[in-house]
Each structure stands twice: as C-alpha cells, then as structure tokens.
C-alpha cells in the first residue's frame, strides 16, 4: 500500500512534490516509485484547519442564544466538525487514508502542525494506521528527501497534539464564556458592543492600557545638574558633576561649598583612562528578533514579517521562520561556512573573513530543540531571483543574510576614554568614544547609530583647563508608547511586569504571552476587535479597549501571570508530564469563578450603571433611508448615509436625560421606547414618559 503524506497546505505539499517525481490529481499528488518510497506515495494537504470545534448550540439549544441565564458553557465532552467550505478536500484525505496502512504527518513541525494533522486524522474515523512524522527545518529538496529517509515515530507528536488540543479547547471556553459574560453585562449598562475575551489577547491589551495610563498620569518634573565647559590646549569638551537633584537649592549649595558661585575657575585633568572595547556580532535571528528589527528599520508590522518570511521559506530561501531559537547546530554551520564567499557575492557584501571556527554565541547543539535560528538555506538563488523578490521579502532576506554573515566578521572595536576634571575639588566626568574598526557593523550600512559620545580633543593628565560652570535644568520624560515591534518584545519579556517573583519566573520560562508563532496573530486579532490602533507605528488603546480594561481590572483575565501558569502546564502536557483532563477541569473552575465574581467586580471597578456609547458603534438600520445604520457620534446619533443626503439624527441628551443606545434601538426598530425616567421640564420638574418617532422627530408620550 502506498503511504499517504499529509501536508498542512498546498504550497507545502508542492515543496514536497518538488523533491520527487509526481503527477497532480484532484486534491492530491501521486508520487512515482523511488528509493525512499519503493511503492511510491500520495501527497495530500489540509487548507489550514480543516476541522474545528462545534458551536455551543450544537451541544445544547439554550447555548445558541446569548443570555446570562444560560452561562456557563461547559460541555462534558468536546465535538469537532469539518469547517464550512472545506468538506471536498477533507473527503479526499479520508478516502486516501482508508486505502493505506501508513500515514506520514508532514504538517509544520510545531504544536499547531500536530493539531492540524491529528484533528483531521481523528475526524476521518480511520483507526489503526501506522503513523510517522516528518521533522525538517527547510523545504529544500535535499532536506525534504533526508527528512523522509529518516522519519520519526509519532510519540512526541501525539503529546504535542494533546497539548495543542487542550490549548484550543481552553481558548474556546474562555472566549465563549468570557465574551458573552462581559458583552451582556456591559450591554445592561447601555454598551451595545461585542467584547471578545481571549486567554492571551486580553492580558496583552491590558499591558498596553497600563503603559498608556502611565503616560497619561505622568507629570514632568524638573531636575538640576551641574555642567562644566572646559577649554584645553587642543580643544574644548564638556563634563558633568555626579549630582541629579530635584531642587535647584542642592546644586547651589554644592557650588557654594566649592567656591564656584561665579562659575569661572581654573581646573586640571585629574584622571585620563582609555580602554579598547569590543562588541561581538549580533546573535542570529529568531522570529521575534527579526520582527522587532524589521519594525525598527522599515516599520513592518509583525504580521507582515511573518507572512513575507513564510513566502521566503516556501521559495526555499530561508529556514523555518516560526522559531524561537537564536542558535544553529554544527551541521548548519558546516554548510554556511563552506558557502560564505558565495553569500557575500550574492548581496555584494565583500569583507575579509575573520574566522570559520564556530563560536558558542551562534553554534550550540544543546540550545537547539525543534528548530534552529533563521538562516539562509544551502540553495543559492541567482542575483536576478533576488532582484525579482517583492521589496519586503528582499529586505528581510538581506537582513537574515547579513546577520548570518556577521558570524564570520570581526568584532566592532572602539576606544573609550574617561576623563575626570577637577575644579576646586569638584569632579566632573566625561566619556568620549573613537571608532577603531567598524567590523560586522559595516554589513548594516543604513542602520542608525545609537547616540554616540562626542569625540574628545587630545588631552593629558594634570593639564590645566579653563572651566565655565553652570547649573542646568532638565525635565523628566514620560514612558514612551509601544511600537508594534516593541509590542512583540513586551509580550515575550512581560515577566518583568509581574509583581510575584514566582510568576515572573514562570513568565520567563514560558517566554511571556503567546508563542513565537502566534504573537503577530494576537496583535492582528486585538486590532480587528478594535481594542488597539496603530498610527505611524505607535500602538494606542482605543475607547473600546479602554472600556474592556476598566471592566477586567483586578481580574485574573488582566494578568499575564495567569496565562503563564496555564502555558507552563500546557508545556507539561506536551512533555507527557501533565494531563489535559486536569488542565480543562481547572479552566472550568476558573470560568465558574468568573461568573460569580465579574458582576460585583464591575461595580467595584467604578463602572457606572449607564455608560456613554462608544463613538462609531452601529445601533440599528436607519428608519428613514433604510440603507445606512444609526451610529453614535460626539453629542448625537446619526445615519452613516448622512453624506448621501439622509438627515436622520437623534440627540444624545433630550430634556436633560441621556438617551442610551438601547433607547435609540427601540425608536429605530419599534418606533417607540418603554417609559424613560428622569426627564426635566423647562421649569425644572422631573417627569417620566416614553418617546415616539414620528416622521423622523421625537415626540413625548405620557
């Protein structure tokens, strides 16, 4: 029987097919007999996730309706279904699996790849097949053939699937319950929006919100330093005394103590030390370091980087991009060192090779697990192929190539000079830097240099200098908002935000929020939910995001620590040290606690019973033109077809009573509201009435 190879998607299947002689069929490829597969084989593919969890209503009709009374949603067992529009491909795979005895999982070599394979395999109902695992880091022909020659067993892969399935179900449970709970409770307060809750996305939004609150609460404060301007025989330089005072008086007292009130005095150079410093080449790239670098250099979003790197991987130009490693093994170093000169020519980066000896900074077999760092493949493209790449792919390919070539370059060298100038017993400190050898930095000619210390004139110990001393005032500056690149780094290193030492350690161990492969997707999700917006590469929380964060404040959903603890246990499942049943039981208890705690938390968080509507929220179809939607605007509600002539509008406040979105919805859909309490007449008396809509105008009904 011919083995069946299941790839994650058509492009991956094509790369496998390129390594063998194949004929294209409907939904699969037929491989001719060859030394690795003497009988030949079939290569088929998923289209990402062919199989998904069923909707809540499939378990119980009452879960089809959003209501607080029907929560929590906690099925006793979980059911899966073929995703809509994907049944044709699923049935092709099912037929092939029924007719074979050996199945090869050739999906991506990570947790999600295992999940995609096993969820398809189990959904087909096929059992008792011999399952093998393809485990490769590149789609080059040689590596594909070598991988199929040395297939692994599926024990480790099955554990990864258990881990991925537990994560998938936990995300579903948190999303289904949390989103309904918060949306419905906020709806009672007049906010007709869906507030999507996510196990990883929600604490990510909260960390951005915290940074924004720090910026908004920041009050600049003055500080005072003492600066000296010195004139030596061969030039001038500046220095500062070791003082940074909140009050000017402290600086004045120091000047009085050294008899420097008039600011002019002779001084001499007390110490002069020059040391040579080295900066080694930067480490090889993981996905997150590449995303951060590309955002800094070209303002690319993390998602754009991942998408472009995936294309380069499928073009066989770079190794597997979804990696968290910054090391390679001696095997990869072997082919890289043998081709250095060719790589140099390819990107026109000539330099004298400093070493071909592997250094632990880059080459360490013990630090490579599933995947090694992102490096160029053995395949050497033509200069024409590189020129033909889209600009973003070309930039990223060159970034990977130059970073890899850095391994073979010299250290960056500079001389650092430290000067201590004595003026009447008060010491002033100065640092100067002189570049000696650009080394590996010459590979990155367009990189902006960090702010350098100014060069110093030629000086000598005990040299006399003329000094002009003055108090200088500075202002403290607010923390800076995140860029998209910094957001990736923040998610990875958010352990430093945890107050509890144990939580901080867990966050470091699991590398923060999300995984290397999912962080960019999480950022895109919270953008799509309108919790954050990115303008000129600066990330800020929207009005809706702020409202969500106010609602979850003090809750475990706002805590990266909770996510880290879950992620830590998920990793135990992947290693065979934990149980998905235990994990999902814990998630169930967490959700039940949410149901009990959140209504009271909203009150203790100071969320008012009636809240202003989010600007731009859609409420109902316009009753006048029937084309547009009525949305909230500043100070009113109006039709989205206003620019095309629709004049329907409603005031946000009518007779000193704020009209909520629910009131407007009643007017648009039923023509009248229930009785509204608290209108105020012209003579100041309060009264109750309902409102009716007649020919687009509001009328009172008593």
TrEMBL record:
Recorded GO MF terms: DNA binding; DNA topoisomerase type I (single strand cut, ATP-independent) activity; metal ion binding
Domain of life where this protein originates: Bacteria
TM segment ranges: none
Residues forming coiled coils: none
GO cellular component, one term: cytoplasmic replication fork
Reaction(s) this enzyme catalyzes, per UniProt: ATP-independent breakage of single-stranded DNA, followed by passage and rejoining
Any Pfam family: Toprim
GO biological process assignments: DNA recombination; DNA repair; DNA topological change
EC number: 5.6.2.1
Family: Belongs to the type IA topoisomerase family.
UniProt name for this protein: DNA topoisomerase
Lineage: Bacteria, Bacillati, Bacillota, Bacilli, Bacillales
Gene: topB
């Amino acid at each position: 029987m011919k083995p069946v190879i299941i790839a994650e998607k058509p492009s991956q299947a094509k790369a496998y097919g390129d390594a063998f002689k194949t004929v294209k069929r409907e939904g699969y490829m037929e491989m001719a007999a060859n030394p690795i597969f003497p009988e030949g084989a079939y290569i088929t593919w998923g289209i990402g996730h062919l199989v998904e969890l069923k909707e809540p209503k499939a378990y119980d009709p009452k879960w089809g309706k959003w209501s607080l009374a029907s929560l929590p949603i906690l099925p006793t067992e979980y059911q899966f279904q073929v995703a809509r529009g994907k049944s044709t491909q699923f049935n092709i795979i099912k037929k092939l699996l029924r007719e074979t005895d050996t199945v090869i999982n050739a999906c991506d070599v990570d947790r999600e790849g295992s999940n995609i394979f096993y969820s398809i395999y189990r959904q087909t109902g096929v059992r008792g097949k011999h399952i093998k695992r393809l485990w490769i880091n590149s789609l080059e022909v040689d590596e594909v053939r070598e991988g199929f020659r040395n297939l692994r067993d599926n024990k480790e892969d099955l554990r990864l699937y258990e881990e991925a399935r537990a994560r998938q179900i936990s995300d579903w449970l948190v999303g289904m319950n949390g989103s309904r709970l918060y949306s419905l409770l906020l709806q009672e307060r007049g906010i007709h929006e869906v507030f999507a809750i996510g196990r990883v996305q929600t604490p990510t939004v909260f960390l951005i919100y915290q940074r924004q609150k720090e910026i908004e609460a920041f009050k600049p404060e003055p500080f005072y330093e003492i600066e000296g301007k010195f004139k030596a025989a061969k030039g001038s330089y500046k220095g500062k005394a070791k003082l940074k005072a909140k009050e000017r008086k402290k600086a004045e007292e120091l000047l009085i103590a050294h008899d420097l009130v008039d600011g002019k005095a002779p001084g001499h150079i007390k110490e002069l030390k020059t040391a040579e410093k080295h900066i080694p080449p930067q480490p090889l790239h993981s996905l997150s370091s590449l995303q951060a670098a590309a955002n800094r250099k070209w303002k690319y979003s993390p998602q754009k980087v991942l998408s472009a790197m995936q294309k380069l991987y499928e073009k066989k130009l770079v190794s597997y991009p979804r990696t968290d490693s910054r090391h390679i093994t001696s095997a990869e170093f072997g082919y890289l060192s043998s081709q250095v000169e060719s790589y140099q020519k390819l990107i026109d980066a000539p330099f004298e090779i400093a070493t071909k000896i592997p250094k632990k900074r880059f080459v360490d077999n013990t630090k490579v697990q599933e995947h090694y760092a992102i490096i160029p493949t053995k395949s050497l493209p033509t200069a024409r192929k590189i020129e033909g790449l889209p600009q973003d792919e070309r930039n990223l390919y060159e970034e990977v190539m130059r970073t890899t070539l850095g391994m073979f370059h010299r250290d960056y060298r500079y001389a650092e000079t430290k000067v201590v100038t004595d003026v009447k017993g008060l010491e002033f400190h100065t640092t100067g830097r002189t570049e000696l050898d650009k080394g590996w930095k010459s590979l990155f000619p367009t990189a902006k240099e960090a702010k350098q210390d100014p060069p110093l004139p030629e000086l000598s110990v005990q040299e006399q200098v003329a000094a002009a001393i003055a108090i200088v005032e500075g202002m403290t500056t607010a923390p800076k908002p995140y860029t998209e690149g910094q957001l990736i780094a923040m998610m990875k290193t958010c352990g430093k935000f945890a107050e509890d030492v144990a939580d901080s350690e867990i966050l470091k161990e699991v590398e923060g929020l999300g995984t290397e492969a999912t962080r960019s997707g999480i950022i895109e999700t919270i953008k799509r939910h309108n919790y954050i917006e990115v303008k000129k590469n600066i990330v800020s929380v929207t009005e809706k995001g702020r409202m969500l964060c106010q609602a979850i404040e003090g809750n475990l959903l706002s805590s990266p620590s909770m996510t880290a603890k879950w992620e830590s246990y998920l990793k135990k499942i992947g290693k065979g040290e934990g149980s998905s049943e235990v994990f999902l039981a814990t998630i169930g208890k967490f959700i039940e606690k949410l149901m009990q705690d959140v209504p009271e938390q909203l009150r203790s968080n100071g969320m008012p019973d009636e809240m202003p509507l989010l600007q731009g929220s859609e409420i109902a179809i316009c009753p006048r033109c029937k084309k547009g939607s009525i949305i909230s605007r500043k100070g009113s509600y109006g039709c989205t077809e206003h620019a095309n002539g629709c004049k329907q509008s409603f005031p946000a406040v009518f007779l000193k009573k704020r009209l909520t979105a629910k009131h407007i919805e009643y007017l648009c859909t039923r023509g009248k509201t229930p009785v509204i309490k608290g209108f105020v007449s012209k003579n100041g008396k309060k009264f109750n009435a309902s409102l009716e809509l007649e020919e687009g105008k509001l009328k009172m009904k008593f």
